[in-house]
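User: Okay, second chain of the day. Same drill as before: sequence in, structure tokens out.
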Amino acid sequence: MRPFALLCGVVVLLFGSPGLANAEATSAELQQLVDSYADRRGFNGTVLVAREGKVLLHAAYGKANVEWSVPSRTDARYRIGSLTKPLVATLTMQLVQQGTLRLDGTLGDYLPDLYARTPAASVTVAQLLSHTSGLADMPGRYTDPWWHTAARRSYAPMDFAREWIPPTRQDDAVQTWRYNNNGYFLLGLLIEHVTGQSLAVNLQARIFAPAGMTSSGLFTDTAVLDGLADGYARTPEGTLVHPQRIDPSVSYAAAGIYSTAEDLYRFDRALYGEQLLNAASRQRMLQVHTAAYGFGWNVERWTLANGSTLPVVSHTGSIPGYQSYYLRSEPHQDSVIILSNYWQGALVVAMGKDLMEVLNGKPMQPAARSLDDLLTPIAYRDGLDAMVRAYEHLGTRLAEYDHSEGAFNTLGYRFLRAGRKDEAVRVLEWGVARYPGSANAHDSLGEAYRTSGRVDDARRSYQAALTIEPTSASALAALAELNDRTPSR
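Assistant: Same drill. Structure tokens below.
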């Protein structure tokens, strides 16, 4: 692979030859788009966008360390969370390609001390890769007490599996798709078992070195890493804080890698050759196996503005303090890589999709401001009435914000999940007021009313949803449940 220019400044634009005017225009648009996410949404981190082997944008925004006001750098290292999974899947497929592992090989075959003669013994490598194993998983939300107790302990990989990956299957009859970190944890154990070497050594020898990834590795608490961006989070009140601690041994093969945007781009380029996988193995990894998921990758076809479709494979990564998103599309060898040390989940995903779509012909529109960013801190600090005043005082400035139906819906449900029922009701009422013809808006408000104990209001909202969409399954089910619970007279 030809090296590409990298600087440590804030923004690096690499254009093609002088004749590639369209590439230059695209680069400028991409920078303008990311600038708007930084200015209006507070994006903090590093982004890299490339097409056909040329880096169109490589930029760093914000701070790598807040306490010392250290600016972000384009070569900064980040923990990448579950973006580990595509790399571990690639390593696994290497071993399958070499005959060291088999896709139909089982936990009973490879880890008999843990799973022989148990219901989990029949789980295959393919099922671990595709999240269809039916194994019990770690709790899905970091608010679960497990993450504040057990996840702070240090484990040897086998000890963690013995204690937290029981030899049972939740869906023994029909293996359905369910995202499963424990499945990838076990892939790390399988890799160690069949090679006789640690996961870290395997990653270095089989992935990082062949791809030229000189700044990547498996994160530990003890290593001192040059250029590692410190991870942060924001409280609902808007205060920047250090994130909760999780012991790195819990992340392991599911979410344990650190890397840089440039290293991940080197990995992307290596996937096009045969340094990592041959074409047949790569195709098998990147094809849908179930529920729009391959082996370690989300696999989708996007509909573009001109009606054409675009194949996109991707993965997000989230670990306290860090958020990542990596998207690739093979027809034009497009790559979008975003690494954030402010744990900016929704923002990073929105920006990644926006960049890929603009790269493929969508007219560039600067990012809108977020009602969530504005209203949530006010609600938590000053209460419902202050939140209402802030929204009503926006006036014509509401046009600067994302006030789509989805924006109201997402914010309303975020309040609802947090137990802030009054705020949820008010936000979803605003959504209905702006989108009175949407059955979904009425349905969502009905759920907020029902959760708040306002049964009559809930019934009216669900009936309004059915007036617009008579076959709405969710509204019909909710009304039936409300009617069943109504006391007889």
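The first helix runs from residue 21 to 41.

User: Thanks, on to the next one.
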